[in-house]
Design goal:
The chain is of the alpha+beta class. It contains 6 helices and 16 strands.
């Protein structure tokens, strides 16, 4: 029986009340079987028996312990319930276990398979019946997977972020592996960025390779700046020791020129000779003697007309009487 008389009479008024701590009024109490006593988990006070009440008649006994109000009790119960729910959610989420990781990856794979099957059906690259069956199976597995993941409280944002990351990685690998249409999109994006940062009005993409008479010529890029054409090249001698250009009057090598849509032939631009230094003429920068497998890399500038149209790079010999087509260099920008 409670020692304090006021607690006893208050408990008698509401015998079905909740067991509370006599000191602080908390309902968070536990019984110790070993010592046969009660203990408050809030104020850590030990007592032989709890106080019962106050129930509906609470407030009429002014001497009730601590004068705890009904609002404070409800706030305490609500706080304890929130803590319990938070602990349960934390236990369910609890990081990514092997099973949860597998389910999330399976969900992403089903989304990707469904999207790819839809694309194949849209482009008529798969039989309609086969595509529909595969799509229905994907959707069924997807629904089952989502229902299982809901038990683990995996957020939608986590799944979407993981799907986007995996899709981006897969698309990048496919683009650089030559899978269409991803490779085409990749080339267009690279072209846009190249034009944006190159400083050219029209950009010439690198990577082309051509050759004639045991000369290998690779295109390193370039572009149009108005009617001025700039071409970056690498010339490699695959034959014996010899000249490229007019390096010697005894041995005249090939030259590089551009020819526009009107048939006009333009030689590389060179600066004016410096008479004070004894220069009578200035030759293109590629003019030199090449040893076997020796290379030259540099850029050539051609002053074209704004109305040149489609222009090509040629290697010529014998005063332009023999021509070898090398590369298509596009056309100047339209005004």
């Amino acid at each position: 029986m409670p020692k304090r008389e006021d607690e006893y009479w208050a408990g008698m008024k509401e015998p079905k009340g909740r067991g509370l701590c006599p000191k602080c009024g908390s309902s968070n109490i536990s019984y110790n079987k070993r010592f046969k006593s009660w203990r408050c988990n809030r104020c850590e006070n030990s007592f032989p028996v709890p106080s019962y009440g106050p129930g509906r008649e609470f407030g009429k006994e002014a001497r009730w312990f601590g004068k705890t109000t009904e609002g404070e009790k409800r706030a305490e119960f609500s706080k304890a319930a929130r803590k319990a729910r938070a602990a349960k959610r934390k236990k369910l989420r609890g990081g990514f276990s092997a099973k949860k990781t597998f389910l999330v990856l399976l969900l992403v794979a089903c989304l990707a398979a469904a999207a790819w099957t839809g694309y194949l059906l849209f482009t008529d690259r798969i039989e309609p019946i086969v595509g529909i069956i595969v799509l229905v199976v994907n959707i069924g597995v997807l629904i089952w997977n989502i229902s299982v993941l809901r038990k683990y409280m995996v957020g939608v944002g986590t799944v979407i972020a993981l799907f986007l990351i995996i899709a981006l990685i897969g698309a990048t690998i496919g683009a650089f592996a030559g899978v269409e249409p991803l490779a085409g999109y990749k080339d267009n994006i690279i072209n846009k960025f190249t034009e944006l940062f190159s400083g050219y009005d029209v950009t010439i993409l690198p990577g082309q390779l051509a050759g004639a008479e045991d000369w290998a010529i690779s295109l390193g890029g370039g572009g149009w700046q108005g009617s001025t054409l700039i071409v970056e090249l690498t010339i490699t001698n695959l034959g014996p020791r010899r000249n490229f250009g007019y390096a010697s009057l005894l041995e005249v090598g090939p030259e590089l020129v551009v020819i526009d849509s009107t048939g006009k032939l333009i030689e590389p631009w060179v600066r004016e000779p410096d008479i004070s230094k004894g220069e009578l003429f200035v030759l293109p920068p590629y003019t030199r003697e090449f040893y076997p497998n020796e290379s030259w890399s540099g850029s050539l500038k051609f002053e074209m007309s704004p109305y040149s149209g489609e222009t090509g790079l040629y290697m010529t010999r014998f005063y332009h009487t023999r021509q070898y087509f090398l590369f298509d260099l596009g056309s100047p920008p339209e005004d």
